[in-house]
Every structure is written in C-alpha cells, then in structure tokens.
Write a structure and sequence with these properties.
The protein is of the alpha+beta class and 143 residues long. Helices cover 16% and strands 39% of the residues. A hairpin with a 2-residue loop joins strand 6 and strand 7. It starts with a strand and ends with a strand.
Length: 143
C-alpha cells in the first residue's frame, strides 16, 4: 500500500501527458484506492471547456483513471494485461456544476473477475463530495 507519484502512475496506465489526471496514490489495497488530483486546477487540463470551466462530469474520467490504476495494481504478477472499457454508469450524483482542486478520488471494487469489475466511486474537494456513482468496466478487446 505504498503511495505512488505521477510518474509511476503514468508507467502503469495508458493515460499519458496532460491526459493523466492523477498526481498521486495516497493508499490502496485489494479492494480500494484513494488518489489525489491537482490537475483539476491546471489551466492546461484537456477536459476544460472553451470558457475555462471544468465541468463536474469530468470527475467521472478522473475516477475511471483511478479504477484503471487500481486494476493494474491488483492484477496478478506476470499476468497478461488487457484493456478495460467503461461500459456503464449508475447512480451518478453531481453535487456541483464544476470541479475545483485539489481533488480526492476514492474507488471501491464491489466485485470483479477476469471479465470485468464494478466499482463505487466518489470525488471530493475540501472534504465535500462533488460527485459519486458506480461504474462497470469490462476487460478485453472490443468486438
């Protein structure tokens, strides 16, 4: 359950450069991960709208990156790495119109196997939850 830096995160997930929206892993175990993102406040955040606003729904992408990272960290050593695809969102609650940073992202694996995983997630700022929901990820090549 060691913390990880942005550089270590980018070595583990396919999101590169400015599109990697996670800055640090604060903690993780087999069932959950907590990350920090300062990228929400960055002016060059690629999810910002033309007027500069970063909509709260962008937090879903940040949470999905945390889920991808959790999957990578908990994958069997030496196992074949397969891509994951976000295929469903449920019970998503946006409590604010926009994101402000720094953000804490928490994802909990509800269930998972070789076919896919289901997670609950929340994104918070200064102790207040900005958005939450559940996501389903399927593993493997697209058909």
């Amino acid at each position: 359950m060691t913390s990880l830096t942005r550089e270590a995160i980018m070595a583990l997930i396919p999101h590169a450069g400015a599109m990697c929206l996670l800055d640090e892993v604060l903690g993780w175990d087999d069932g959950q991960i907590t990350c920090l993102s300062r990228r929400a406040a960055a002016p060059d955040n690629p999810l910002r709208r033309a007027g500069g606003m970063l909509g709260a729904a962008s937090g879903i992408e940040i949470a999905a990156q945390a889920m991808a990272l959790h999957g990578r960290l908990t994958a069997p050593a030496g196992g074949l790495l397969v891509p994951g695809y976000l295929v469903a969102l449920r019970d998503v609650h946006l409590r604010h119109a926009s994101l402000d940073g720094p953000l804490h992202i928490h994802a909990t694996r509800l269930r998972g196997d070789a076919q896919g995983a289901a997670y609950s997630f929340d994104v918070s700022h200064a102790g207040a939850i900005i958005l939450s929901g559940r996501a389903t990820v399927l593993f493997g090549a697209p058909s």
